[in-house]
Amino acid sequence: MKIKVHHTAIVLLILIAGGVIVGSILWDQARVESDWQPFVYAPPVYPDSTGSDLDGEFYLSKIQPIFNRRCIVCHGCLDSPCLLKLTCYEGLLRGARKGNPDGTHLFAEKPVRLSDQPSIEAWREQGFCSVVEQQGPPAERPAKSILFRMLVAGTEHNQPPFDLKSVQPVYQAVNKHICPCEQGVDDYLKQRPTAGMPFAMPALSPDENQLFSQWITAGSPGPTAAVMAETRKLAQPEVIARWEAFLNQEAALSPLVSRFIFEHAFLATLHFDESPGEYFRLVRSTTPPIQVTTDEDGKQVVDASPVHEIKTARPYDTPYPKGVDKFYYRLKKVTESRSQKSLFVWKLSDAKLKQLDELFFQVDPVPGKSLRSDYASHNPFEVFQAIPARSRAYFMVENSHLIVSGMIRGPVCVGNLATYAIKDNFWVFFVDPAHDPSVLKPELGLKSWNDFMDYGITGNVEYNDAYNRMLDQYKPTGYEIKDIWDGNQKNPNAWLTILRNETNATVLRGRQGGIPPTFWLIDYSGFERLYYSLVVNYEYYGSVEQKLATWEFMSRLRQEFEDNFLRLLPVDERQKYRDLWTRGIGQELLFRMPFPGEDIGKGLEVEGTDPVSGVLGKIQRRFTEAVSGPHDLLNPGRKPEVKLSDPIDDFAGWDAAVSTLTMRTQLKFTRFLPSNTFVRLTKGEESRVYSLVANRSYAFNNVVFDENGARQPELDTMSAYHGLVGDFPNLIIDLKIEDAAAFLTELNAVSSPEEWAAWKTKFGTLRNTAAFWPMLDWLTDWNFSNRQPDAGYFDLKYYMLLDSMH
């Protein structure tokens, strides 16, 4: 009874808070739109020389590599500590500022992407301070440089092994801690002598410190114009020309199609098979597309105007700043270092170009619908009516990895509160657009397109009722196995594995990690609603009421997609599984959601006593391993007959032994296991990499701010993966094969915080030890050698700290 009162109080508090602040929504929204005006961001102008005895390549060849491996492990994302982003020289010059625009605040703030202001002066007006000293006598610059002083403090206090207790309080209020800009670096370090950089990690080497001293004394120069021109040079300009021509063609549907693609890929990093090693972003520019021709001598002539990006707060905002009456879609080469958390790659090729042309331009526009790209509307169902719904739907399912990645791998690195609306581990399937009521009847019988994007409870119920009516009309017996899109038995985007593990959020193609506790079946209109609410409409800098509305809508969408999957089960089994998937106070809140009961289909005919396994078996047979991937030996349902105490002599023996612990509930150690653990397993001269992921269990996911109250630790499980999964490793293990049996045996025996701490100290690579950087460097090299083009630098902001609660 006490627990129930606690939960009810939380619900009432949320409702009261929402009522108090909801009146400011329209005013707050207007405030953001009036404060932010679109503008043209031209490339920064670099000098012809460094103005010192350092050459023009010094920064990119000497300094940025240190930032990459030692600094952007924390300072690589939009919400980096003190907003200091060190992935490129522009981020260094912008400097630092307190606060986090993604934090909780009553009023919306302004975006802080690196190109959201046209100059350093504009950033200074927003409170950013310089972290390097470029003026005054050279000998005095290091002492006046915040960056260098923080590195010196790290050198003084972070010589391994060093104590971590003094830094843990910072993580208890990560968005509230003071930055050196506010009180001056002298006072800051006097009060916090152990806050040097790299923060709570081993200090830089003497050689690295010497490079920084030399560079800062010289005035912290960046790359020269000649060096940047070479860096921005296109290796295969004809490839980029083909794509820019496609995006800016004269076809009647072209403006809408290009806008549709842009709004679904604006956060992605693009990589082309025909131009390996180069990365791009899709942007809107005032300058025309690249032109590649051949002269009389047969030589290639490239006419490429610099990309002058049109910056808007949101991707659907008008791309017409003052004085601009025409814009183009361009591919802007990415030259800054890639942070793994914000990196998701859309892999493109000439074959993909042909596929997109067939999908969008070998079809006729929908009769009577406007071909004009009207920026007065932000509703995708209204804006893109002229593009056949079938084309839009197939684009989304065929590129589902891209679409879902945009929801969970955006520029904000840590968003575990927002992702709490979904479960830690689930599989996703899609309704085949050829059989989807929202494709066959796009308007679903609703009176207004606004009904599709109504975040309110009433509006959501009306949408669900309309969808169910159309489903009953087109599929009176409910969904059948043929109604699930199978990727034409070759596209692995048809089956997704999604992980939400505190700071880590990952989407994988195919069936991976073992059979999860829940599943989604997504239809086109639901997929679009989900994407626009979480990505296109979402403002990380927005006010608390905006974020609460998005969170609540996300929670309802999750329930819709879980219920969609339940429609595949026999009617008399559906309630049992819904009650299993959402328990406690969560069930009391489900009165708002219609249930797929007897009036919505009869479900699939399955054999055996487990209807979910029966449905999954039918899906597997339909999809084949070409889509689902091979049998998962690390997370099998039927465990091998192996004893943990038996010696492990090879990698096959490790795979079998670790598989005895995966996807099992009622284990004691899983509640202590960090969200994400990287393991390097070595036998002789050969090393292999594994990821151990903790799948937390929650009784419900529809009461915001009550994540801990919903915990069911006895139902936690562990999944194992080949390779590196996740972006925020919480623990790194360096393990020799001869120690593998003891590693697993002792892990399985952990049942208390004290035992966990002892196990972690024995086997873990601790962040305050000399072994830390060499181990991370090895994993970084492995990542870039084995995961291209999807490799970036890992984020270690919460390394060893999220599990400190245990």
Would you give an account of this structure?
With 806 residues, the chain is α+β, with helices and mostly antiparallel strands. The chain has 4 domains: 1-35; 36-226, no CATH class; 399-630, no CATH class; 651-805, no CATH class. It has 31 helices and 16 strands. The strands form 6 sheets. The chain has a 4-stranded mixed beta sheet. Strands 15-14-13-16 form a 4-stranded mixed beta sheet, sandwiched between helices. Strand 4 and strand 5 (300-303) form a beta hairpin. Helix 22 (524-536) runs antiparallel to helix 23 (544-566) and helix 29 packs antiparallel against helix 30 (753-763). The protein is globular, with a radius of gyration of 27 Å. The model is unreliable at 1-34 (pLDDT under 50).
Topology at a glance:
Blueprint: H1 2-21, H2 25-35, E1 39-41, H3 58-71, H4 89-94, H5 120-125, H6 141-144, H7 146-157, H8 168-172, H9 180-183, H10 185-191, H11 206-217, H12 225-232, H13 237-247, H14 254-265, E2 269-272, E3 280-285, E4 291-294, E5 300-303, E6 309-311, E7 328-333, E8 345-348, H15 350-361, H16 380-383, H17 389-398, H18 400-408, H19 416-419, E9 425-430, H20 437-440, H21 457-474, E10 496-501, E11 504-509, E12 518-522, H22 524-536, H23 544-566, H24 571-581, H25 585-589, H26 611-623, H27 625-628, H28 651-659, E13 676-683, E14 686-695, E15 717-722, E16 731-736, H29 740-749, H30 753-763, H31 772-786
Parallel strand pairs: 2-8, 9-12, 13-16
Antiparallel strand pairs: 1-6, 3-7, 4-5, 9-10, 10-11, 13-14, 14-15
Helix pairs in contact: 3-11, 17-18, 17-22, 22-23, 29-30
Keywords: Isomerase, Membrane, Transmembrane, Transmembrane helix
Pfam family, one: CTI
InterPro entries: Fatty_acid_cis-trans_isomerase
